[in-house]
């Protein structure tokens, strides 16, 4: 009888140990699953590679900086500024960049290249920019001009050489024209949308670096150049923006006037980033950054010289990206 009791106690002990072991295994599995979920939706690592528009660069760099500090400290977001067209050449290749910033829409031939390579491209409008014409701060005669006068200065057949050709009361000094070169979407926007593909004046000085343009114009009293509003905002101490008369009086480019239906609409354009959807599907950090960008870009637009987007556009992009999770 005692022997049977001992056997019963042993059996109970074995059952109890088995129960405890099973619980531990369940807890371990739950912990591993939790860690896996955190890796997917919380703690990420790896890199996100972005290149393209110099105009969009300050905005994207600011968003990337905040993302790495406040959102994903183990993800490296690299932002370049080779120019819109040069950036697309890095984007539309095998193992290319994850995003390409652009100050113009993607071209049909670029989309064809993406199709040939099997790259699914998602356009994301990130802000609104105002094409801004800038002059030397000591220029006290040309601070206000009509849209037609500005175009004629850069138009090869505009018959404008000196300031006095615009207004006889202005100096009889040669106008020196400046702008970004053909690598930049800003040049393409100006050439295609403002000049309507007419030739620029032969002696226009086109530069790759916007900082170089700022320096050249700030040192030349007879200079006039063009680039995105953000580069003017960040250099107000050395440049002066031309107020443009579109027919109802001079309009100063500002965050209040830059809008597709606003007072500065004729010189307003959307700016973009293009997402490689293949990369977003394969690399969690790329999708996570894309969602963060769309959710937060309006918060950083104003401080980098851009007008924000309507909420309905933001929500449409978010809906598209959330489906990839």
UniProtKB/TrEMBL annotation:
A Gene Ontology molecular function term of the record: phosphate ion binding
Keyword field: Cell membrane, Lipoprotein, Membrane, Palmitate, Phosphate transport, Signal, Transport
Domain PBP as annotated: residue spans: 39-294
Position of the signal peptide: 1-22
First-listed, main subcellular location of the protein, grouped into a coarse class: membrane
PROSITE patterns in the cross-refs: PROKAR_LIPOPROTEIN
Annotated InterPro entries: PBP_domain, Phos-bd, Phosphate_ABC_transporter
Gene Ontology CC, one term: plasma membrane
Topology of this chain in the membrane: Lipid-anchor
Any coiled-coil regions, as ranges: none
One BP annotation, GO: phosphate ion transport
SUPFAM superfamilies, per database record: Periplasmic binding protein-like II
Subcellular location: Cell membrane
Its job: Involved in the system for phosphate transport across the cytoplasmic membrane. Part of the ABC transporter complex PstSACB involved in phosphate import.
Complexes and interactors: The complex is composed of two ATP-binding proteins (PstB), two transmembrane proteins (PstC and PstA) and a solute-binding protein (PstS).
Family per record: Belongs to the PstS family.
Protein name as catalogued: Phosphate-binding protein
Organism: Natronobacillus azotifigens
């Amino acid at each position: 009888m005692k022997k049977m009791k001992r056997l019963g106690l042993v059996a109970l002990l074995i059952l109890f140990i088995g129960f405890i072991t099973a619980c531990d295994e369940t807890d371990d599995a739950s912990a591993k699953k939790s860690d896996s979920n955190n890796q997917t939706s919380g703690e990420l690592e790896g890199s996100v590679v972005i290149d393209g528009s110099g105009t969009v660069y300050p905005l994207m760099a600011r968003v990337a900086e905040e993302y790495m500090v406040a959102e994903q400290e183990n993800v490296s977001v690299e932002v370049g500024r080779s120019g819109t067209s040069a950036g697309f050449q890095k984007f539309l290749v095998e193992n290319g960049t994850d995003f390409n910033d652009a100050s113009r829409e993607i071209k049909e031939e670029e989309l064809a290249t993406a199709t040939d390579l099997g790259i699914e491209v998602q356009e994301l409008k990130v802000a609104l920019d105002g094409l801004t014409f800038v002059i030397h701060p000591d220029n006290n005669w040309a601070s206000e001009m009509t849209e037609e006068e500005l175009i004629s200065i850069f138009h090869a057949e505009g018959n404008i050489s000196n300031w006095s050709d615009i207004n006889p009361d202005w100096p009889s000094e040669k106008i020196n024209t400046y702008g970004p070169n053909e690598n930049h979407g800003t040049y393409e926007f100006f050439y295609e949308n403002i000049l309507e593909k007419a030739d620029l004046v032969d002696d226009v000085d086109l530069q790759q670096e916007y900082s170089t343009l700022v320096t050249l114009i700030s040192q030349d009293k007879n200079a006039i150049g063009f680039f995105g509003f953000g580069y003017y905002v960040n250099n107000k101490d050395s440049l002066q923006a031309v107020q443009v008369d579109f027919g109802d009086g001079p309009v100063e480019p500002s965050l209040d006037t830059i809008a597709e239906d606003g007072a500065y609409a004729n010189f307003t354009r959307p700016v973009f980033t293009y997402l490689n959807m293949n990369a977003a599907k394969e690399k969690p950090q790329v999708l996570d950054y894309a969602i963060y960008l769309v959710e937060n870009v309006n918060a950083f637009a104003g401080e980098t010289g851009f007008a924000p987007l309507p909420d309905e556009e933001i929500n449409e992009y978010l809906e598209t990206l959330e489906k990839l999770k």
